[in-house]
Amino acid sequence: MNDMNLPMRAFDVEAIRADFPIFQETVYGKPLTFLDSAASAQKPRVVIDAEVGLYEHYYANIHRGVYKFSQDATEAYENTRETVRAFINAAKSRECIFVRGATEGINLVAQTWGRANIREGDEIILSEMEHHSNIVPWQMLAGEKGAVIRVIPLHDDGSLDMEAYAGLLGERTKLVAVAHISNAIGTLNPVADIIRMGHDAGATVLIDGCQAAPHLKIDVQAMDADFYAFSAHKAYGPTGIGVIYGKEALLDKMPPWQGGGDMISTVTFEKTTYNDLPYKFEAGTPNIAGGIAMKAALDYISALGHDAIHTHEMDLLKYATEALTAVNSVRLIGTAPEKGALISFTMNQAHPHDIGTILDRQGIAVRAGHHCAQPVMDRFGVPGTVRASFGIYNDRTDVDRLIDGLKKVVDIFG
């Protein structure tokens, strides 16, 4: 390892796993096979140390103290903002708003830009594969404003019906909000095309990037996204911190969402004036330690390299797809040509929750259920799926253990 405790070889998985303390643990006496990174990824030591380091060595509130600890904590926290800017290639760091996570970021846009711009009869386009966090805020807004939700349907392989999308776009379309990668079925959407088509219709476009940020090189300028949301905890960082990127021109016009410290410039009982970006949207004491630790997580990903990560994870996806296809009772849900590093399936013998429980006894952690994407489950006529999602610490051995675990499901249920 080098001085930053980052892997020196791009994909020595054994060395990478050594950076994650959780893999020293066993589950029911078996080694941990963690296949639920799409829900929340494990944390490398550098992330844990960054968070603990603040509390042990220089903790203070930020942006307001004149003493050394406050200045040091402020500098460390704001350094993260520049790291985020570079990570997603935003034009300016002030376009990167820190929030509790992507859910809060999407709600922020709905409650600020949405309330200011959506009118009765306007249309909001979502897709059939969206996470509930990218459905419910827009339903709430539509209900308040009298707007209409339109839904892009899916093909049978789980890919978006882009012809149907083109047909939905019109003069009433004000917003398009879609996932970069589906959390439920793994479909990688052509976001640059989605954004271009939305802009051609005069719409603003938000991309939910939760499942893309840990796996792909994100370039918000190249894709021309108006808003882009992601959470640190899926990108090997801490919980309770995330980012909503917005174009500066849009953010400048948007009203604040929450009132309180840091988002103000001056306050009297007659009038309050608001702070500049990004602080206009960051009321109250933030998750300081989480913000600092998020930098360590993004630096860790960048040190490995997005191309190397993608190559490794696509190899795992191909290997797992072939292995699962060979199991007669398995039905894959979501087989789009372009996918992220996760695979969803059902088995004839057992409910997904039963499968997940049996796998757990073998030390294998998967997600079982509707994955906060019930419309996707309805589309494919299933109550839920088993989802195996891959990260930088997984290898083919983990897939082999998954297949062995599924053989036990067959043994038990027949």
Overall shape: it is: globular
Task: Report the oligomer.
Answer: single chain
Q: Summarize the biggest pleated sheet.
A: 7 strands, mixed
Q: What is the number of strand segments?
A: 17
Biggest sheet strand order reads: 4-10-9-8-7-5-6
* Structural Rg: 22 Å
Strand proportion, as a percent range, falls in: 15-25%
Total count of helical runs of at least 4 residues: 14
Mean pLDDT: 95
Q: Flag low-confidence runs.
A: 1-10
Distance between the termini: 47 Å
CATH topology of the largest domain: Aspartate Aminotransferase, domain 2
Which structural class do the helices and strands define?
Answer: alpha/beta
CATH architect. name of the largest domain:
3-Layer(aba) Sandwich
* CATH superfamily descriptor of the largest domain: Type I PLP-dependent aspartate aminotransferase-like (Major domain)
Total domains = 2
- In CATH, what is the class of the largest domain? Alpha Beta
**Share of helical residues:** 40-55%
